[in-house]
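Session log. Operator J.P. requested a structure for one protein chain; no other inputs attached. Running the standard single-chain path with token output.
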Amino acid sequence: MCDLMPASQPAEKIGKMKKLRRTLSESFRSIAFKKEDSGFDEICVTKMSTRSCQGTDSVIKPLDTIPEDKKVRVQRTQSGFDPFEKPASQVKRVHSENNACINAKSSSAGKESPKLRRHSSPSSPTSPKFGKADSYEKLEKLGEGSYATVYKGKSKVNGKLVALKVIRLQEEEGTPFTAIREASLLKGLKHANIVLLHDIIHTKETLTLVFEYVHTDLCQYMDKHPGGLHPDNVKLFLFQLLRGLSYIHQRYILHRDLKPQNLLISDTGELKLADFGLARAKSVPSHTYSNEVVTLWYRPPDVLLGSTDYSTCLDMWGVGCIFIEMIQGVAAFPGMKDIQDQLERIFLVLGTPSEDSWPGVNSLPHFKPDRFTVYSAKKLRQAWNKLGYVDHAEELASRFLQCFPKSRLSAQAALNHEYFSNLPPRLWELQDMSSIFTVPNVKLQTESGDSIQVCARRNSHGKASSGSKH
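Structure written below.
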């Protein structure tokens, strides 16, 4: 089960914030990259400091020191969300540790592989190198928002397709903390079900995050196959989602923005967690988290009611909503108005909470019993009939969709649920970087007779190249 972590409200002075902002801005201007061209992982982001990051593998502590004051998009129209559209309040900067380094082990020159030497020879100063803006060719724009513009690109070093997330920097505002957070977290996450950050490029005007290129996202995939996905495909997508979440939760990281638009789908069916701009580390319990996280449809009732005292349970509610949406073909709780409307939709199915069913609910800031209609809990199949057609699906969904946060099933426990009992045992023995599709006989089924291959004109962060928003 999920455990909550205590939190307290930190008090920070405005003057100190301004000083920290100046420090951060100056720090990012001093980013430097190693000159050895032995691969994407050989990056060192050097902060202004009396200490250097040479010769060490520094452990990056994700930024978790400044409480957010931010809101996320709360409605999805037929054309969907813009996953890069962040409110102006999100363009604040926060400080990172003065001596933080993003540093991977470098191969010695004598051990450099011939393959890499062919891509970039140290003796040729004009050869493209990692960490340089001119090392990537922009092929087409895939999406644009107030926070970033995403391009499909190609590496001049090794010829691979990439997604270039170009974050605009403003001298007055400095580097958006969402970009810093995403980069610092993803640099340390290596898993087949998490989008891979290849490179970081910093110039005076922009900060570019170079990701592996992934063709589409789960939202686009479901739009392409309306009415609910093939039950076997739902199972494989959910298994991969839980696999990725278990990995980050074991490292004390919360994603905090789970939704179909942030789950990338490759042309082979690999699902990858993406967009870690709202992710937070929960390893330091002395800070209160923002309750303005997670897109409204996928936001748990405790957060909707103003709780800032949460943990991995936050993500698990979103898993339940996505699970139902994949099976049923429609969003589980598609609130159309506001938080009150969203809560009413949840309580209509799960029952209006009380102190008996949810200890401590009366102490939540926004819970006023007289504001809500009293509903009795229903069986989930009464709201979503297709849950009844799949063995153990309703029971698993009910374990995710618990109003009381501590009752929600954890990602690791969910992987061992009976719902997955007919999958090959080897799936539980895979290494972190191994795809589930390396196991024999594990493959996606065709949806409604269509090929599982999806249109290549998608970006790796959930926006169609036609410009439709998500």
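Operator note: The radius of gyration is 22 Å.
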